[in-house]
Structure formats: structure tokens, C-alpha cells
Design a protein that fits this description.
Blueprint (H helix, E strand, L loop, with lengths): L2 H5 L2 H19 L2 H9 L4 H6 L5 H5 L4 H6 L7 H21 L15 H10 L10 H28 L5 H29 L2 H21 L13 H16 L1 H13 L2 H7 L2 H7 L4 H30 L1 H18 L10 H28 L6 H19 L3 H8 L1 H10 L2 H11 L19
Helix pairs in contact: 2-9, 2-10, 2-11, 3-15, 7-9, 7-11, 9-19, 10-11, 10-16, 10-18, 12-13, 13-19, 13-22, 14-21, 16-17, 16-18, 17-18, 17-21, 17-22, 20-21
Length: 448
């Protein structure tokens, strides 16, 4: 089968569009929000702590069993939930667009007194910030609904594709996701200089509408067996199945590896936009170079990652991607030495995004192969929740660390903390417990 025929299969196209829908909200509550808050003169500590808005991505396993156990009275178990979540998500983004980030008065006057001392302990300027708590609440709702959408989309992708299609399917999904990251990142920054952040956020809600169309076009996956009917079948049985299938030691090793694999890359990204702005890059420069050029680099990296998966298998692409991610993160520490150089920014961002995309393509396929189709939503949610820990809990104090250490030392440490994940992967490569290879009858990428 020729490569273009594989890519034009109905399921592949649906997963591509759902990837786009999943990618839109992520940056609206992380890096793009950093840009909005920076323009509202919020400090580095506030921007770093805003990473906690992404906490639902880490905790989504808590409500994931709902999507395995219950169905809405329309469109089937996966599509019904997906359409309802997407409609609510579009509304939440519009709510955020209508909420200004600042000029709400000092935070110390708007929170309980016992919290004021804690805020001052984190940073002496934090109680004086005028950050809107309504905006934070709206962004938290967006994160919750976005995490819920991810649960259902991940389950849909796992259930709608055969095992041998997972490598290609994950790559196609990531393509859609990366395009959405450019729209809600690069394009958003460019438009923010010409329009305004509220208008930009309102426009992003339209990206979710595209996902709703894909949901209506999709076919409900056909799964053998019955759906879970009790708490035991929704939670306990999937956990027992996962640990029983892999063995306790191997299962724990997989979970720790998922936690560590993108740790350094994620910690670096938590302060990236503020870093660029402190180097005096404008929103347009960030949008054009860091986001648009980075988007093109990430697309190339996703293509390379998908091709490498088909050629050498998931586990070895994980190793290559992990090594490249570590070195590319370290390159950020070199950027200040070039001064205000658009060329240097382009090279550093290009290398970083190609590296991250190669690793992500393999990482997504790896996690999919660790799940049982009968319990996809819960098991995949556990894995991606663990993956999200660095992006939320560990990234929250990133601004404090970067401010106290300085950017160069901080990014160097981010490079070093990638080592434990790589060492664990090397141990996994020598173990017979990790059967992660996806046998594929799909063609090698690049063949006509």
C-alpha cells in the first residue's frame, strides 16, 4: 500500500483532525497565556506558578473511568462524550477571552489572610500582583475540559486503529496536534500584536468547532467484550490487568520512565516565552521565529520520527529522541551569548522542536502499546497523567528557580535532568519485559 493511501484512510484523517482539536487548548493555558500575562506586566514568579493551571492534565486519571463506564444517549460511548466536551470547551475558551488578566486590585486583598503569608514566602511581590482570579478559574476550566477531551480522543485513537497502525496513527495525530500548536502559539502571537489577546482567544474557539465536525464524521469504534459496569470493573480490574500483564517491576519501571522521559524538555518550556521576552524579542518575532519556524521544524521532526519508527522500532526512536532533546535544551543556555539575534533564535528553536517531535512521535506510540483496548480510557489516562506531572507540579516553581539561578544555569540543569530517563530507557532496552515494537505492514515513509 502506498504511503498516501495510508494517510488518506478515513480513520487516519479523523485522528488528524482530532489531534488538531486536542492541540488548540494546551498553549492557551500555558505558553500563549505566558505571553498574555507578560504583556499585562505579570512577573516571572506569577507566570511560573500559572503552570498549575495545567493540573487537570496530571489528575485526569481520576475521572477517566467515567468515560469507559458511562455513555451519553447519543452518538455512542466515545463520540457522544467527545461532542459534549468539545462544545463546553469552546464555550470556556470564549469565557477566558472575555476576562482581562489584570487590574483586579492587589492579590492580598482578594484572598484569605492565611494565604497572604504563603504567597509572600514564595515571592515578596506576589501578594501585590493584580492577576485576575476569574481568568485563572476560566483557564483551569479550559484545562479540565481539554484534559477530558484528551482522555476520549486517546481512547478513540487506540480503539479505532489496529496495533500495526498505531505508529502511523500516532504520527498523523501529532501532525494535527502540531498544526494546532502553531495556530494557538505562533499565529496567536503574531495576531496579538495586530489585534488583541481577547480577540485572539475568541478566534481559537473556532478550532474546537473543527474537532466537533470530525466527531460527527467519525464512526464509533467497535470493541469486543462489554463496557465496565461497576467501580471495580472501571478501576480495579484495569489496574490489575496492567500490572498482571507486565509484572509489577516492569510496570513500575514503565511508569517511572514516562515520568522522567520529557522532564528536562518540559521544565525548559515552562519559562521559555518569558525568556524570549527578557531577551527583548517582540510578540511578532516570537510568533514568526519561535512558533512558526518552530512549527515547521516540529513537522519535520514528526515526519522523521514516524519514518524511524517504521524502520527501527519505537524503543530505539525513544533513545535517539531523548538524547537529542537533552542537547537541544542545553542549547537554550547559549542563546543569551548571541544577543538579540533572530538567526540564533531560529537555529536553537529549530533544533529543539525537531528533537522534541522525534521523541514525542515515539513516546505517544509507546504509551498506546502499553494499554489494553478494553480499558483504554483509564489506562491511557494514567500514563498521560504521569507524563503531565513535570508540566504542572514540577514546572510550577520553574519561574522561581530560573529567577534565582539565572537562565543559563537553569537551562543547563534542565539538560542534565534528562539523564535519569535515558539511563532507565537503556535498562529497558536490555529487558525482555518491554515488548513495544509495532509490527507494521505500512510502507516506509517517503515511498511514492
Amino acid at each position: 500500500m502506498k504511503i498516501w493511501k495510508v494517510l488518506l484512510q478515513r480513520n487516519m484523517f479523523i485522528n488528524f483532525v482530532l489531534g488538531f482539536s486536542s492541540g488548540i487548548p494546551l498553549l492557551l493555558t500555558s505558553k500563549t497565556l505566558q505571553g498574555w500575562l507578560s504583556d499585562a506586566n505579570m512577573g516571572l514568579t506569577v507566570i511560573g506558578l500559572a503552570a498549575l493551571i495545567g493540573l487537570p492534565y496530571t489528575l485526569k486519571f481520576l475521572w477517566a473511568p467515567i468515560f469507559d463506564r458511562f455513555s451519553l444517549p447519543f452518538l455512542g460511548r466515545r463520540r457522544g462524550w467527545l461532542l459534549a466536551i468539545q462544545a463546553a470547551l469552546a464555550g470556556a475558551i470564549l469565557f477566558v477571552a472575555a476576562t482581562p488578566p489584570g487590574k483586579a486590585g492587589p492579590l492580598a486583598a482578594r484572598v484569605p489572610e492565611f494565604l497572604v503569608g504563603f504567597l509572600a514566602w514564595l515571592s515578596k511581590d506576589l501578594p501585590l500582583t493584580e492577576l485576575s482570579l476569574t481568568l485563572i478559574g476560566g483557564c483551569f476550566l479550559v484545562s479540565f475540559l481539554s484534559a477530558s477531551q484528551d482522555i476520549v480522543v486517546d481512547a478513540f485513537r487506540r480503539e479505532s486503529l489496529r496495533d500495526e497502525e498505531l505508529g502511523m496513527g500516532s504520527t498523523v495525530y501529532i501532525y494535527g496536534y502540531r498544526i494546532a500548536l502553531w495556530v494557538s502559539g505562533g499565529l496567536a502571537f503574531i495576531l496579538a500584536d495586530k489585534l488583541s489577546w481577547p480577540v485572539v482567544y475568541a478566534a481559537m474557539a473556532g478550532g474546537i468547532a473543527i474537532g466537533m465536525i470530525a466527531t460527527l464524521m467519525a464512526e464509533e469504534p467497535k470493541i469486543t467484550g462489554t463496557k465496565p459496569r461497576t467501580f471495580n470493573e472501571s478501576v480495579t480490574v484495569p489496574l490489575k490487568e496492567f500490572f498482571g500483564r507486565k509484572g509489577v517491576l516492569s510496570a513500575l519501571t514503565v511508569l517511572v520512565f514516562i515520568l522522567l522521559y520529557k522532564l528536562g524538555d518540559t521544565l525548559a518550556g515552562a519559562v521559555a516565552v518569558k525568556f524570549y521576552k527578557d531577551l527583548h524579542y517582540s510578540n511578532a518575532e516570537i510568533g514568526t521565529i519561535a512558533k512558526t519556524f518552530g512549527f515547521a521544524s516540529a513537522m519535520v521532526g514528526s515526519f522523521i520520527g514516524g519514518a524511524m519508527i517504521l524502520k527501527i522500532g519505537i524503543r530505539y526512536v525513544l533513545l535517539v529522541g531523548g538524547i537529542l532533546q537533552a542537547f537541544s535544551t542545553g542549547c537554550l543556555a547559549l542563546l543569551p551569548s548571541f544577543g538579540h539575534s533572530e538567526l540564533a533564535l531560529a537555529w536553537v528553536i529549530g533544533f529543539e522542536d525537531v528533537s522534541a517531535a522525534i521523541g514525542t512521535a515515539a513516546f505517544a506510540a509507546f504509551m498506546a502499546t502499553q494499554t489494553n483496548k478494553q480499558y483504554t480510557a483509564f489506562q491511557y489516562a494514567i500514563l498521560t497523567s504521569i507524563m503531565g506531572v513535570p508540566r504542572t507540579l514540577l514546572a510550577a516553581p520553574a519561574g522561581i528557580w530560573a529567577e534565582s539561578l539565572g537562565y543559563e544555569a537553569y537551562f543547563t540543569i534542565c539538560m542534565v535532568v534528562a539523564a535519569p530517563g535515558l539511563l532507565l530507557l537503556l535498562l529497558m532496552l536490555r529487558s525482555s519485559h518491554f515488548q513495544t515494537e509495532v509490527k507494521s505492514d505500512a510502507p516506509a515513509l517517503g515511498k511514492a
